[in-house]
Write a structure and sequence with these properties.
This is Uroporphyrinogen decarboxylase. One of its GO terms (molecular function) is uroporphyrinogen decarboxylase activity. The protein is α/β, with parallel strands linked by helices. About 50% of the residues lie in helices and about 10% in strands. The protein has helices spanning about 5-15, 35-40, 45-50, 50-65, 80-85, 105-110, 120-135, 150-160, 165-175, 175-200, 215-235, 250-255, 270-275, 295-310, 330-340, and strands spanning about 70, 90, 95-100, 140-145, 205-210, 240-245, 260-265, 280-285, 315-320. The chain is globular. Bound molecules: coproporphyrinogen III. Coproporphyrinogen III binds near residues 45, 96 and 145.
Length: about 350
């Protein structure tokens, strides 16, 4: 594939770049009126996710309207539990809800299925990627993604969002065998799913471990890192990004994982992380998503300060977590323009 803009892939591989690439986690949907127009014409979020032509359309919207250097396929991390036999609903203003959760071996057999062809149950993602790639026609790379096993586990055990995910963490103490069994199953399906996305045309894949930060370091090594490492080891076709939100203590271990890029949240300075991680990984991030609530001139200043702290070319610019739904798209554009106008000094 000849790209018109492959900055993202070159930055991920540690190759030379003329300027830093920039995209936003959760850039599709959420902030764009063009997304809401499509979304409101449908029965719900899942219909959009499962209709490949529309999923492709909203995937490309941020490339057209925000001028980002990458597209990320419009889907959700929760399609994996659903494919494994645990259906979810997205309740307006509440978030995802699973009617059933996994509490026992019997639940695991029923709702932790692995014995299926991912193309059968998740073929709509494959099709959405194929359509998106065709329509993008090399303008920018397309990012595929999945949730990390630990984060998916949290939803399958707690049954929805939670501040503490205490049901999930309880299982690590009361029934670690069952926990490992489920984590292994999620990992196996996720690897097959990411390979399907790559075959369909994903140019880079990101694994979102959004709830990495709620575990102590020993537990994260055992129940989190072990499984994202398995995924990173299994994917060699395209660059891999691991985003383990809040897992600072795990950074020295993450630095040894088989990925190209580590995603960072906004709690640590990039300069400090670079000292821990060394030069062999690309770092992605990490402006505080709330910085986009400040004025246009402050956004420019904060973004330039962050860019000044980068001492190498191994960077992909992003926020430290997904863009918040009520951010003014004009503020996002200021962030993106500032990155694009920045001259790399080293
Ligand atoms: O733009 C993109 O990044 C692509 C699409 C994408 C969505 N979800 C679409 C979505 C991606 C990459 C995700 C990942 C995701 N989903 C994560 C990991 C990233 C993170 O934020 O930590 C998690 C934890 C989820 C689970 C999830 N899905 C929640 C908690 C919610 C409800 C809250 C919200 O609005 O995000 C969803 C629904 C969801 N996923 C929406 C979108 C655009 C909102 C649906 C709507 O009402 O239109």
């Amino acid at each position: 594939m000849d790209f018109k803009n492959d900055l993202l892939l070159r930055a991920a591989r540690g190759e030379n770049i003329e300027r830093y690439p920039v995209w936003l986690m959760r850039q599709a949907g959420r902030i764009l009126p063009e997304y809401r127009a499509v979304r409101n014409s449908l029965s719900g979020f899942k219909e959009l996710v499962e209709t490949p032509a529309l999923a492709a359309e909203v995937t490309i919207q941020p490339v057209d309207h925000l001028d980002v250097d990458a597209a990320i396929i419009f889907s959700d991390i929760l399609v994996i539990p659903e494919a494994m036999g645990l259906e979810y609903q997205l309740i307006e203003k509440v978030g995802p809800r699973f009617e059933k959760t996994i509490k026992s071996e019997a639940d695991l057999v029923k709702h932790g299925q692995t014995d299926f062809d991912v193309e059968d149950r998740l073929g709509y993602v494959k099709e959405a990627i194929e359509i998106t790639k065709k329509e993008l026609n090399g303008r920018v790379p397309l990012i595929g993604f999945a949730g990390a096993p630990w984060t998916i586990f949290c939803y399958m055990i707690d049954g929805g969002g939670s501040k503490t995910f205490s049901e999930s963490r309880k299982m690590l103490y009361q029934n670690p065998t069952l926990a490992h069994e489920l984590l292994n199953r999620i990992t196996e399906v996720t690897i097959r799913y990411l390979k399907m996305q790559i075959k369909a045309g994903a140019d880079l894949v990101q694994v979102f471990d959004s709830w990495a930060g709620i575990l102590g370091n020993n537990q994260y090594n055992e129940f989190g890192l072990k499984y994202i490492n398995k995924i990173a080891d299994a994917i060699n076709e395209v660059p891999v990004t691991l985003f383990a939100k809040g897992a600072y203590a795990a950074l020295p271990n993450l630095a040894n994982s088989n990925c190209n890029t580590l995603g960072l949240d906004w709690n640590m300075s990039v300069a400090d992380v670079r000292k821990i991680v060394g030069e062999n990984k690309t770092l992605q991030g990490n402006l505080d998503p709330c910085a986009l609530y400040s004025s246009h001139s402050e956004i420019e200043q904060l973004t330039n300060n962050m860019l000044d702290s980068f001492k190498s070319k191994r960077h992909i610019v992003n926020l430290g977590h997904g863009v918040y739904p009520d951010i003014d798209p004009e503020k996002v554009k200021t962030f993106i323009k500032t990155v694009k106008n920045y001259e790399i000094k080293n």
